[in-house]
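Quick one, T. Sequence first:
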Amino acid sequence: MKKTEDEIYGRIISALKERRQGATVADISAAAALPLSEVRQAMLRAADEFNGRLEVTESGEILYSFPRGFASRYRGPLADLKRFWQKFKKRAVAAGVFLFKAWITLMLIGYFVLFIAIVLAAILNSKGNRGGGGNRGGGGSAAAPFRVLRGFWFYSSQPRPAGPSDRYLDGYHWNEDAPGVQPQEWVEKPPMYKAIFSFVFGEGDPNKDWQKTQDKAVIAYIQENRGVISLGEYMAFCGKNSVQAGEELLAFCARFAGSPEATAEGTIVYRFDELLLRTDEKKSPEPSVPLQSLRVFSANPRSANIKFAAINGVNFLFGAYFLFHTVNTGLLTTQEQADAASFLYAFTQILAFHITDNPLPVLGVFLGLIPLAFSALFWLIPALRLHFEDVENDGIKLANFKRLSFSAIWSSPLTAEPGMVKADSEECRPFDMAAAWESAVKEIGAVFLPDVEAGEDGQTLYSFKEIEREKKALEKYRGEMDASRFNLGKTVFDTGGPPAGKKAKARPEPQAGETALSPAGFKVVGIPAGVFMMGSPANEAGGTAAHEGPRRQVTLTGGFWMCAYPVTQGQWARVMGSNPSHFAYTPEAGANWPVESVSWYEALAFANRLSIMEGLSPAYRIKGSANPDDWGRLPASPVFFRAFFSKVSFSSSPAWDAAEIAEDADGWRLPTEAQWEYAARAGTASDFGNGADGWQKASLYRIGWFDFNSDNITQEVGGKRPNDWGLHDMHGNVWEWVWDRYGAYPAWPQTDPAGASSGVFRVARGGSSFDYAQLARSAARGFFNPASRLRSLGLRLVRP
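Structure tokens:
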């Protein structure tokens, strides 16, 4: 099929090349002997790929022309080389920036510590020579600055109770509500190395997702205007000149199944009928003109930047000191020279004699020239960045002002004057607003020629009568459209249920071992309702009664479907568009390896996205929404030692931790701890789901991967025998997140338990390839910070 499509497209391009000065759809259809529908869609693709232009003839036909020739933007050796170079440059720059940042931090802190150590050593040596002070007292005073420095470094990255001065919720987000934060809540300041990066290199591009933001706004505008937009409207909405707007609209047509048409008045309109075929019938808020954000110099408080500048100033002064004395004092060869020289310089030269016979290069270069040059660079980079960011911000302000100007002119084209633009925010106020207004008028006037006259106050007034005529033509065109043909109507056929008008039968209860395949390709196994003894008895080999008990009777009143395997890297990538795994393989080789290094929070997002993909009702609601796009940024993984010792937790994400399950949802979700253990046991009461007792290695060989047989890496799912209900890898390979908070078990029987009502940690079950056999028992429990992303943590989903 792909070859046939390419052949058709090739025939159309060949026909276009013979008519590069202009051709209609009918011309190309006749020349290539192809149906009009196929040619019409291919012409849009060609116009996007080869920078085509659209013209309207007197008869109202669309004429496609290619004045720039047929050099493809997306194909061919040159395009491939360009894409390769862009990827290589991006990765090389990222690697270089990372190494440069690491070097910056090491130099700043390292030289500061070194210089302070030299000064303290010189002071102690001086006291010792005078016989004053005890070693203990001197040692204590010498260590004090290092304790302060260590505390500054270490505690700057640790969370602590919030107070009125705590302005950061995390490393980068400003806490506007800080004065009212309760003492039991925790806030986190950025680690020192991140703060240094912020001072030297800033916060990155705040508009990196700008194109996506603009596209969403344009789609909303199109949907609220009967699926139609004109070139003038697009210019007014996005602030682009006619050439840019034309190219972007053609690309928009190729991406969102649009098509250009001509109105009776000769205006080109772009129709996107398929964008109107939506289930959401709620009227969207009136789309607003999207504006770009200004770059900020640093997210650090002013006091932090002053501290870094001061530390760098200390390094600069010491570097200048040692370079000056190396050049002017030189090598000290006699006691008289040493007595006459600066005490610190003489002492440092004596220390350097223990390293080399010629200490001058050490003093002049290592302690003088290098820190001096580095300190100058440390100040120079932010200074240059401040200058270039100011220039870039000027450009952003001008672009935003033009967007508002174009929109204002489009709204009131007959009385266009500078005062009509409401530039209320800093992002919209360029330095010379009068010049910016003239530039905006000139660009829109290149398409819609205005009438010009002088106002009473001497200002130039513009009247864009052509825009007024185009607006009326658009209003007429939209008014003649039959909006009812975009109504979806009632469902007449459903692959998952009976035809409309017939009462749906109750979903049958899953039977043990029954299998099915979900629309996205997830093999599921039926788990029936039932009663079992949950937890570890006091005498279970390798068990921990206080942690895994007391054992009690649990009733599950409803059956459910459980994935036969842990979620794989291939499945995760198809749903989420990326592969976060530590043991990441190529798509061909690793699609069936379990995904890992995913947090509990990410597991919720994955479950809802999969439900939406399969047309199910999402199970989880966060911040009142079931759409993960509305949940905000994923909570950050615990940093430094907290990521390593993941059972230590200092903070949580209240909004995410307050996730709720919709009672009537039929979508995917994490199993409860009771569901997981019930399914793992598969009707057995033994330590493992294969009926084996004890935690000896032999009990796990046939059913699971653990430290003795896995080479301490994850293994392809399904490589071991399933339990009696057809579930693979329930013991070992990766820990599997479950819904429950970690807490002690009650001593009484329970029905459909869902875990503790409070607590920071979330439970994981099953053990992993890195753990000993004891942790892979059916009753074994693990608990982790829900933000943890460890190479041993994966997931498995269930649905009703």
